Amino acid sequence: MPFLGASELRKLLKFNKIITDDDNNNAFNENRIKQAAYELSLGTQVYRTDNKDRKVEILSENNRNIDINPGQFTLLMTDEFVNIPDDKLAFISIKAKLKLKGLVNVSGFHVDPGFKGKLLFSVYNAGPSIITLETKKAYFLIWFANLNSSTGQKDLYSKNNNHHQGQKTIDPDYLDALKRNDMASPSAILLKIGEQKDYFDSEIRTLKNSLENDIKEKNRKVLNNEFFIKLVIGICVAIGTKYMIDLSITQLNVQKHIFENKKINQMQKQIDSIKSKIIPLQNTHNVIDKKNIKNNVTAKE
C-alpha cells in the first residue's frame, strides 16, 4: 500500500474533486502540497469543553480566533470537504508545530474509502499554555495511499452504518457526550486543588485569628484577675497593717493605763501609810490641853 508522492498527489487532486468547497467545486490549491501531504484548513465551526454557553461556536471575519485552554478538549471541523476515492485510503494528522505546543489529536488517524464530508478533529491541549487557532489557516495534513484494489460497494463508507458521511456541521451527539460532566483534566484538577488550598488556607487563617483572639482575651482576663488579686492583697495588707498598728497602740495604752494604776495605787498606799503615822488632830488637842492644865497646876503650887 504505497503512499502517493507529491507529483502523484498533485495530479490526483488537480483533476479530481477530492478536495472541494461548500458548493462542491474543486478547492485544490497547489501551494497546499507539502512534501507528500496536502494541507487542510480550519473551518468556521468549533466546540470547546470549557465554553460557558456549551454550544458550537461560529468563527467569522469578525471573530476569527479560538483559544484552546490547557487541559481542555476541542472539536475542530475542516473548511474543506474531502472525498476519498474507492481505491484510496487517507491518513490525517495535525501539524507538528501544534503538537510541539501540546495539542494532541485524539480522534481517528485515517479516512476510509468512500467517505464524503468535512473532517472533524477532536484535540486535547496537553500543554501548559493556551493554543490559539485562526479560521481559514492550515493546521491539518492528509496523505493518500493506494489500495491493491478498489473497495466494493458494500464495503465503502456510506450513510448506512456511518453517521459521519456527508457531515458539514458538528453533530449534537458529540456535544451531549462532552457536556455531561466537567473535564477531569490535569489543569482542571490543579485548579480545584488550588481552590481547595485557598479554602483551607482561609479556614486556617480564620482559625488562627480566632485562636489568637481567644488567647488575647484570656490573657486580658488573666491580667484583670491578677490586678484584682493584687488589689485584694493590697487591701488585705493595708487592713492587716492598720489592725497591727491599732493593736500595738491599744496594747501601749493598756500598758500605760496599768502603769498609771500601779502608780496611783502606790501613791495611795504611801498616803495611807502617812495617814496611819500622823496623830489625829483631836488627840493632839487633848494632849496639849492636858499639858496646859498640868502646867497651870504646877504654877499655883
From TrEMBL:
SUPFAM superfamilies named in the record? dUTPase-like
Q: Which UniProt keywords apply?
A: Hydrolase, Nucleotide metabolism
Task: Please tell me whether the keyword Hydrolase is annotated for this protein.
Answer: yes
Q: Which InterPro entries match?
A: dCTP_deaminase, dUTPase-like_sf, dUTPase_trimeric
**Entry protein name:** Deoxycytidine triphosphate deaminase
